[in-house]
Amino acid sequence: MADINIFNSGDSAIYCCVGDSISPALNEMVYALENYILGEVRAGIIETVPSYNGLMIYFDPLTLDRDKLSGILSSFSYKELQPLSAENRGTIVIPVYYGSDQGPDLDIVSSTNNMKPEDVIAIHTGTDYRIYMLGFTPGFPYLGGLDKRIATPRKTEPRLKIAAGSVGIAGEQTGIYPIESPGGWQIIGRTPVKLFTPESESPFLLKPGLTLRFRQIAIEEYIEIQRI
């Protein structure tokens, strides 16, 4: 297994890279490294920001010495990997109403890939997606595993407003917009489930490491879930 590459990033941050590709194995290492450093260092860590294959660590240089932190990171052994916690494993199913006003770009995705809209839906709901990380907007999941048969380029001109819950495709990625925001993804449906509830003690529904599946629902179920 490759060594961790450690880079200084300003006077109060260190970036750790565990590889140069995207894979579940490397992503597991990122979160194991995060668990390790948070367990080893009791004071001085301000924030950790995991990504596909790296971890940014922000620290207080008045509390935590950079060389000490680098030394702790350098002593990390892959044999000591602590796997993701139970709450970050398992499968979560997200209900989606596809097409119509909730999925205005479903026809674009289907025509781009020379298939019927129902075929796009069948492929999209028939795939398991790993949640690699959250970012872009609060709770936005970066998902791996989109079937290349329905990969579609993002829009040349982004929309200024995309509704919360919108499910989109951009290139070989699919994702869900947790809040209303601008965006250039091709929107194929919408979920009535809230991914981000800032007033909650646990504001994010999704967690890295989970497997996500989409389930097609009718408009009646969509409306019923919205009422909950």
Characteristics of this structure?
228 residues; alpha+beta; Gyrase A, domain 2; Cyclophilin; seven-stranded mixed sheet; 13 strands
Structure, briefly:
The protein has 228 residues and is an alpha+beta fold. It has two domains: 5-83, Gyrase A, domain 2, CATH 3.30.1360.40; 88-227, Cyclophilin-like (Cyclophilin), CATH 2.40.100.10.
What order do the helices and strands come in, and which of them pair?
Layout: E1 5-8, E2 13-17, H1 24-40, E3 45-50, E4 54-59, H2 66-74, E5 91-98, H3 106-112, H4 117-125, E6 129-134, E7 141-144, E8 159-162, E9 166-170, E10 173-176, E11 181-183, E12 186-190, E13 211-216, H5 219-227
Parallel strand pairs: 5-13
Antiparallel strand pairs: 1-2, 2-4, 3-4, 5-12, 6-7, 6-13, 8-11, 9-10, 9-12
Count of DSSP-assigned helices? 5
Give unreliable regions as ranges. none
Distance between the amino and carboxyl termini:
47 Å
**What is the topology, as strand order, of the major beta sheet?**
7-6-13-5-12-9-10
